[in-house]
Amino acid sequence: MRGLHPVRGDRLPDTAGASGAPIALDAMGGDHAPGEVVAGAVQAVREHGVPIVLVGSPRPIHEALLRHDAAAEIPIVRAEETLAMDEGALASLRRPRSSIAVACHLVRRGDAAAVVSAGSTAGVVATGKLRLKGQPGVLRPAIAVALPTLPRPTVLLDAGANAEVKPEMMVQFAHLGAAYAETAFRVGEPRIGLLTIGSEPGKGNKLTKRAHELLSAAPGLDFAGNIEGHDLLTGVVDVVVTDGFTGNVTLKTLEGSVRYAFSELRRTIEESRTARLGGLLQRRRIRDLRGRLDPEAHGGAVLLGLNGTVVIAHGASHAAGISAACVLAAELAAQGVVPRIGERLGTAHRPHRLW
Amino acid sequence: MRGLHPVRGDRLPDTAGASGAPIALDAMGGDHAPGEVVAGAVQAVREHGVPIVLVGSPRPIHEALLRHDAAAEIPIVRAEETLAMDEGALASLRRPRSSIAVACHLVRRGDAAAVVSAGSTAGVVATGKLRLKGQPGVLRPAIAVALPTLPRPTVLLDAGANAEVKPEMMVQFAHLGAAYAETAFRVGEPRIGLLTIGSEPGKGNKLTKRAHELLSAAPGLDFAGNIEGHDLLTGVVDVVVTDGFTGNVTLKTLEGSVRYAFSELRRTIEESRTARLGGLLQRRRIRDLRGRLDPEAHGGAVLLGLNGTVVIAHGASHAAGISAACVLAAELAAQGVVPRIGERLGTAHRPHRLW
């Protein structure tokens, strides 16, 4: 593939060609980069067959690969700069050769199918917008997160890309989220819910009242009406639409409450010997439940609406979270979420690449 | 007391005089009125020594009192109309003699110390604003809810009275919440947190960025800075300030997630015999934990900023929830939350009543 510079080896590993274009993984983004990012890449390649290229500073990446005996399996693309975890939009403009910018560039050129990064959300969003640009017709890209509902996940967006939104953007978020549900979760006709403060149509603030009107009238959307905070984990809709401020506070509240409920439970159980005994008998099942509800298990947040798939893993991700993000990115790219968004927004054009 | 019309008996029960003015309890508000409301009143009187008057339609109230053999203990004040659960502000204007309006009237006249209702929140807020009016200097009253944090509850407001707010109102909300924490939970200098989408001061939407500036500069407030959704149940601050839309979505999300975590846990445990065995050994402790996290246990939401204490119990409250709301109302009135708000806002005047 044009543009890849493997640091070791004369030819690219077979996996890159056979399974489609690789995932461009930002090796330098995140609290545990590059060590855990590389470990996650190895896991994605070996356990899930997802082709990866690691983008960043070659030496530490190579050393990490050696620890897994994987230097021949995963190519490296050089990027000498890195955005720090607290750098945001302006820093992105100043660092055209940051690992995240180079990863986006690979997607734009067709040398990678998607970008994955555990770097700062603000930095990834700004770099993505600048380097990949919005799809035709997209007012603003949005961050979508899959909530661990049953029988299948619920997509929540915008989870934080846009702190201020206009009602028209909310209609687009519905289409972005529906495309995600269709491609990643095979939902035939995703049901859309609008997150607000009452079930009756007249309830809410100015933004949600107007968004309700627009969503009700929008063609191509199965709008199920208003939903409230306590409906989020019931699986009653497939996509939940909200503004980025409310979405981010809500998502963090969800994560914090579930974590709180489990830690209170553990504390309660450990306070008594009888209860502890009971705890031993359930340990495996509770661990499985915690795993299902663990944000790291779901592959992270997806930035939808750009000319390329971008997955943002939790900053604190370890190998498992990185691997899950790569698997999610590969699935979204393979299933064509970007063309699907184009179709939904009525601005689809024949893609000249299959991913 | 002037104005009370006991349906039975020639003199008022001693409890009304001895413990201070009674709580005016809207007997007709809520999903399980008047039966569960009356049961809750009986519980508050007998188990907590809180004097109550029941406001509403005399016949069904009296019949319910007879079932508890309590007709001589709790007076009734007649109000022939009732706001339906789905009626809101306009209905309040049309029904000057609704049970909630009459209850507010008792407080205004000094014949009751506080109002408690499980009726529709919109109806209670509208009636309260109309009949009790805002305290001098209060831009908007706010609904405050106590989150079950340890070692003591955290006050969250505005939990839904104002879907749109201005930054100046957020500063007032901080004072209202601080007064609640001081009076109900004896917190000496309540720490205030601003709910937003990032810990750094520059993060948030326009409203929260401006509110941050105002809160930082406001005298008489111990402003601890921004907090995020996952901090809500950590007890890191005493008061969390937000707008009514975000507050309501957040509160419902909290309630829904905790409920979800417990039901998932129960389901997980019941799927296996071994785990079930473990569950038997913990049943009591888990039940206690669920009780602590149960919204009904906390006495409901308090409408702060009016010339009188108003507590809104959950619409689905049973007797225990009603009783807890009455206990909370009595405590707030006795501890003087209304005068304390006046002092904080710099508009305190010597109250001519002690409640």
From TrEMBL, chains A, B:
Main location group: cytoplasm
Secretion signal, residue range per the UniProt entry: none
GO molecular function: phosphate:acyl-[acyl carrier protein] acyltransferase activity
Keywords tagged on the record: Acyltransferase, Cytoplasm, Lipid biosynthesis, Lipid metabolism, Phospholipid biosynthesis, Phospholipid metabolism, Transferase
Enzyme category, top tier: transferase
InterPro entries named among the record's database cross-references: FA_synthesis, Phospholipid_synth_PlsX-like
Location of the protein in the cell: Cytoplasm
Keyword check for Transferase: yes
Pfam families: FA_synthesis
Pathway(s) it belongs to: Lipid metabolism; phospholipid metabolism
Reactions listed under catalytic activity: a fatty acyl-[ACP] + phosphate = an acyl phosphate + holo-[ACP]
Domain of life: Bacteria
The enzyme's E.C. designation: 2.3.1.274
Quaternary structure (record): Homodimer. Probably interacts with PlsY.
Family: Belongs to the PlsX family.
Record's function text: Catalyzes the reversible formation of acyl-phosphate (acyl-PO(4)) from acyl-[acyl-carrier-protein] (acyl-ACP). This enzyme utilizes acyl-ACP as fatty acyl donor, but not acyl-CoA.
Protein's UniProt name: Phosphate acyltransferase
Species the sequence originates in: Planomonospora corallina
Record lineage: Bacteria, Bacillati, Actinomycetota, Actinomycetes, Streptosporangiales
